[in-house]
């Protein structure tokens, strides 16, 4: 699923670039970070497909706690990464040292792997369906056009 999204984004970035949009304009259109846009534009199609077919396999410091995080997120889908970190520290006293970003990455991985979405993500999905793919935020109101 994630690779399909990346592939679509790569093609969208290149299409928008061919239409004459600069990186800042592509960022507004796609909501991608400028560094990601630069990376996508610097890769040929073959390089991009090779890059996504060989994902990085980093050692997971908290891999033994995946089931715990999965259980917590299934019971409390709106649990944030910070709250998950607090619960990990409360229950498991023998945790290795890690950064908060590590817990955030773990929570995101578990959410994606087991399709656990929070109510905030449900709202975002509903807004995208309602307003289309071109969302802009102006005075805290979502509109279907960008000014």
- Which regions contain 5 or more consecutive residues with pLDDT less than 50? 137-147
| Major sheet details | 2 strands, antiparallel
Number of domains: 2
Average pLDDT level = 83
State the helicity in percent bands. 55-70%
Structural class: mainly alpha
Integer-rounded radius of gyration: 19 Å
Structural shape: globular
Strand content: under 5%
Taking the alpha carbons of the first and last residues, their distance comes to 32 Å
String of helices and strands: HHHHHHHHEE
The number of distinct β-strands equals 2
Number of helices: 8
Q: Give the strand line-up of the largest sheet.
A: 1-2
Give a summary of the structure in a few sentences.
Helices cover 63% and strands 4% of the residues. The protein is mainly alpha-helical and 147 residues long.
């Amino acid at each position: 699923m994630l690779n399909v999204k990346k592939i679509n984004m790569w093609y969208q970035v290149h299409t928008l670039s061919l239409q004459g949009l600069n990186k800042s304009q592509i960022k507004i259109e796609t909501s991608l970070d400028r560094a990601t846009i630069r990376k996508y534009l610097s890769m040929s199609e073959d390089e991009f497909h090779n890059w996504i077919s060989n994902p990085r396999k980093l050692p997971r410091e908290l891999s033994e706690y995946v089931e715990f995080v999965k259980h917590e997120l299934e019971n409390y889908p709106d649990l944030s990464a910070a709250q998950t970190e607090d619960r990990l520290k409360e229950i498991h006293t023998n945790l290795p040292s890690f950064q908060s970003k590590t817990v955030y990455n773990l929570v995101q991985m578990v959410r994606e792997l087991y399709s656990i979405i929070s109510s905030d993500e449900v709202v975002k999905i509903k807004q995208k369906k309602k307003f289309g793919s071109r969302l802009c935020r102006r005075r805290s109101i979502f509109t279907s056009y960008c000014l």
